[in-house]
Amino acid sequence: MTAIEISCLCGAVKVRINGEPLVQFYCHCDDCQAVHGGAYIGVAIYPSQAVAVTQGELVSWTLKSLPRQRCAICGTPMIARVLGLGGCGVLAHRLPKGMFKPEFHIQCQHALLPIKDDLPHFAAFPARFGGVDDTVEW
């Protein structure tokens, strides 16, 4: 894959991403709900070294446990450092159209409403994230 570039809404920040994501999923945790104002978000995790800010300044902040970075000017959420995975989370809606291909849902214990699709729905974190593979059935 060739490198892609994403930017904030005002264009002040540009982030270059090289390579393929490690994993892509929907997150229903209460932290993501509070930060993004939605029932769930799409996330693509890339290796940390594959994600680099090439223009502008990001401001770091943490609501509960996940360090997140947003544009210092317009406040657009851009990336989150996923320390336990050695990766960097990129919001799906920042990626070019068609690049987000989710594999599963996580933290469905916090889901506001059932999402019915053909993907696995893990109650918390799946085993590959250090959890167990308990799922919810809707």
From TrEMBL:
Q: Where is the CENP-V/GFA domain?
A: 1-105
Keywords attached to this Swiss-Prot or TrEMBL record, sorted alphabetically, are:
Lyase, Metal-binding, Zinc
User: Which InterPro entries does the UniProt entry name for this protein?
Assistant: CENP-V/GFA, Mss4-like_sf
Q: Which domain of life is it from?
A: Bacteria
Answer yes or no on keyword Metal-binding. Answer: yes
Question: What GO molecular function terms would the record report?
Answer: carbon-sulfur lyase activity; metal ion binding
Please name the SUPFAM superfamilies in this protein's record: Mss4-like (SSF51316)
The answer to whether UniProt assigns keyword NAD to this entry is no
Q: Which Pfam families match?
A: GFA (PF04828)
**PANTHER family (alphabetical):** CENP-V_GFA DOMAIN-CONTAINING PROTEIN-RELATED (PTHR33337:SF40), GFA DOMAIN-CONTAINING PROTEIN (PTHR33337)
What's the family?
Belongs to the Gfa family.
Please report the name of this protein according to its UniProt entry: CENP-V/GFA domain-containing protein
Q: Which organism is it from?
A: Nitrococcus mobilis Nb-231
